[in-house]
């Protein structure tokens, strides 16, 4: 199984498994901006290259200042810790705040469970229903937080792509404050949502000392290989996370890229509009395929269910034609037939859907 290292986007394992060249794979299993990085990024990185002989700023001060001013007057640089991807920040939350019991809403990003297991935490899972588009019931969630020391929630959730309304998330955050439960809100894909600023707790974070917001710059700005993310929270909590971070974990090129990328507002808006249009088109295409159901998503990927076909078999059939999809059968709360598809360019999506159609036909008729 190519997800044996835990995630999508592993074109190297896929190339090894399916006998393909890694660069020839059209990757629908990781959810990266289809436009690639903003054009000028490479010349900015080239200019910064001679400085790699020095250690990077261990506190990312310029980037934290830029982030704080981009987030508005309620956030100061002391409320931010920059990490080697949002993944590092998520790990730091568990290692610094030492929860005994971690709550996970299923299905969700596999890293939450992996991090909690590595740290020896007890794990409690709250399962959601496909009839509710895999969204948790808010009252149930408010009661669930009493049982755990830390809860992870994807906002938007991965692999579903949807999220609770802000008023519901606020209820959950207040329940967490009441019960001293840390609420880790993973906003890695929020940048892709139209009017993202209307869906985040960032403006009320100063009243919520148990809430942490995790952001990734690798997806929107297509710099997954450079690694850059950050976490926003109360100054004291951020200090605890920082005390566990490996020195110089954010390299100089990533810091320089981050400062430049934060100014790319037009690129972000263009991406949001493009992704929304292509997502709607893809949903319409998928509706024409027999036995295929897609779930509601507001971001740059779709959770899809295919009747009577095993996810891995479908993945293999599509890989023979150069397209890598995410097998989601192993997610707790999902099972056979679930896959996840990224939203890419119009032309790539058309190719992917035609390969999906052909593969389904071959697998269902044997021809
Ligand atoms: C939901 C979610 N959160 C966080 C991350 C980690 O992002 P980063 O590349 O910034 O470490 C991922 C990566 O796939 C993700 O899917």
Structure notes:
By secondary structure, the protein is of the alpha/beta class. The chain folds into 2 domains: 11-30 and 266-365, Aspartate Aminotransferase, domain 1, CATH 3.90.1150; 39-263, Type I PLP-dependent aspartate aminotransferase-like (Major domain) (Aspartate Aminotransferase, domain 2, 3-Layer(aba) Sandwich). It is 38% helix and 15% strand. The chain has 12 helices and 13 strands. The strands form 3 sheets. The chain has a 7-stranded mixed β-sheet, sandwiched between helices. Helix 4 packs parallel to helix 5 (110-118), helix 4 (86-97) crosses helix 8 (235-244) and helix 6 (138-144) packs parallel to helix 7 (166-178). The longest helix has 23 residues, at 265-287. The radius of gyration is 20 Å and the shape is globular. Pyridoxal-5'-phosphate binds at residues 7, 85-87, 109, 154, 158, 186, 188, 216, 218, 224, 229.
CATH topology of the largest domain: Aspartate Aminotransferase, domain 2
**N/C terminus separation:** 24 Å
Form type: globular
The portion of residues forming beta strands comes to: 15-25%
CATH class of the largest domain: Alpha Beta
- For the residues shown, what is the average pLDDT? 95
Give me the Rg, rounded. 20 Å
Bound small molecules, deduplicated: pyridoxal-5'-phosphate
Instruction: Give a short account of the largest sheet.
Output: 7 strands, mixed
Uncertain residue segments: none
Question: CATH H level of the largest domain: which superfamily?
Answer: Type I PLP-dependent aspartate aminotransferase-like (Major domain)
